[in-house]
Design goal:
Elements (H helix, E strand, L loop, with lengths): L35 H5 L13 H4 L9 E18 L5 E3 L4 E12 L5 E8 L3 E5 L12 E18 L2 E18 L9 E21 L4 E8 L2 E13 L3 E2 L7 E2 L2 E13 L2 E8 L5 E10 L6 E6 L15 E5 L5 E11 L4 E10 L17 E11 L3 E17 L13 E17 L1
Antiparallel strand pairs: 1-2, 1-3, 1-22, 3-4, 4-6, 5-6, 6-7, 7-8, 8-9, 8-10, 9-14, 10-13, 11-12, 13-16, 14-15, 15-18, 16-17, 18-19, 19-20, 20-21, 21-22
Amino acid sequence: MKKQVRRLGVPVTCVGVVMTPWLSLATGFRLPDQDAFATARGEAFAATADNPSAIFYNPAGITQLEGHQFRGGVYGLNIQVSYESPSGHEVDNEEDLFAIPQFFYTFTPEKMPLSFGLGVYSPYGLSSGWQDDSGFRTLATEAKLSYYCFNPVVAYEIMPGLSVAAGLTVNKVELDLQQGLFWPASGDDGFRFKGDGWTTGFNAGVLWKACEQLSFGVNFRSATQVDLEGRTEAYNTVLLPSPAFPGGALPPFTHGSPAEMGFRFPLNVVMGVSYRPTPKWNIEFNADYTDWNYLNTATVQQADQWPPAPFPALLPNSIPVPLNWDSSWYYEFGVTHYFDSGWTVSAGYIFNENSVPDTNYNPLVFDMDRHFWSAGAGYHWEHASVDLAYQFGYGPTRTVSGSAPSPAGQTADGDYDFMSHALFLSFGWRF
């Protein structure tokens, strides 16, 4: 947590944490990319759902699979985000390389209408870091969110062509947030909350093959709330002038306190339609809704205020984390051509709406309207399959104006640019 030295120019003020997480390839901090074949199709997979990753995309689809099947992969991502302040100062986000693994297993017993599955994956994620001279250090410097989902599901084929499914999600969440306390700063200073917790939810799906050419899919993921238990840490290494303290100055300090934070994750609904004009072509469109309104305001609750009364609270017991995002949509389009030789070739496009209003904008989010183009190829043997996808993301410059200032007076106002490159490799085995 070492910071560059800066000259002190303002008195001490009360400080509150501001935290809004980062996205991968989605508004907010969702990770919708869980399979190379689906990603190559622009994530338009809810009405197709014909490999074990259907556990994530639409669990009703696993009734299409025979015997034991395994699917695993790694999503490798390079994010390039830059910021230019209203005064012309430019800085780049420092966290730019990521690798997200996933694992899916399904089993369909012979002569039974039931199928079973288990998925282990990360439907949410965060990793963001900005330099100390960004101009918004008292809003955000670093954030990391890890969300591990263990997802057993059961699917039932009600009748040929119509299946339903439901599953339990058991989720492990870890969160680490950091920001500066003062600006300008005379030495090392910072605030950090780090905590973890478990939560449960559920997912469900419906897949209906209306005819040989047309199928419909709906996938639902419930909202969840997790109580993160951990600790806050705050420190400053130099004497700070402040008339509210004895001698007119706040001495160097290090403070830690047990703390907890209740944090919400939104519900998500995906509706898709797949059209197969011939057995060699599959064209699909999905509308993907995320209820970001559910986040509202989170609160970091410390056991101890610091400094204790009667001094003004630099770190009060309750530190609000205003989010107040807007719900938003993805619009996903994909097409696949199947060759007799076992090869498949796919392409896709996604448009996703931004979710964070200017008032609540935080640089950890990188939120803006975005476009994603993808392409990929796969090969299927008798028992094995492999798929490789490339995805390019682009966000037109977003100009943020009127964002809420930190207690030190810094804002997130300025221009943000986004570009991403991703490679996705998935391997399947049927036995």
